[in-house]
Specification:
Layout lengths: L2 E5 L2 E4 L4 E8 L8 E7 L6 E6 L6 E3 L7 E6 L4 E6 L8 E8 L8 E2 L3 E6 L1
Parallel strand pairs: 2-11
Antiparallel strand pairs: 1-3, 3-8, 4-5, 4-9, 5-6, 7-8, 9-10, 9-11
């Protein structure tokens, strides 16, 4: 089993910034796993935002967040970060951390999710 705990969400005005963290733990987890971020807005399906490949740090981003969001990871702390700048009201959603053995775009395990609300 893998446990994922997100933190750092909240309410911010449009144009502002937030930094989300996700710390992984569990007997089968190690930092060879992919740690990815997804979000789900009310009435919409959960969507991939960004992921980072453990072997070489390669990243991938959804087009809507390119240039505004940055994913990084701290292997010593089993933690992945999502720096979100220039936030827009349409970024309002519940954000989820996902861990995958094999893919940047899927998850075998999920965190509980954390709310991000961007006001106008």
């Amino acid at each position: 089993q893998v446990q994922l705990v997100e933190s750092g969400g909240g309410l911010v005005q449009a144009g502002g910034s937030l930094r989300l963290s996700c710390t992984a733990s569990g007997r089968t987890f190690d930092m060879s796993w992919f740690l990815n971020w997804f979000r789900q807005a009310p009435g919409r399906e959960r969507e991939f935002i960004t992921g980072i490949r453990s072997t070489d740090g390669h990243t991938s981003y959804q087009d809507d967040v390119k240039g505004r969001f940055t994913i990084t990871r701290d292997d010593a702390k089993n933690t992945v970060f999502l720096q979100m700048n220039n936030l827009r009201p349409e970024d309002t959603a519940k954000y989820y951390c996902g861990a995958s053995r094999a893919s940047m775009w899927t998850a075998d395990y999920w965190g509980q999710g954390i709310q991000v609300t961007v006001s106008t």
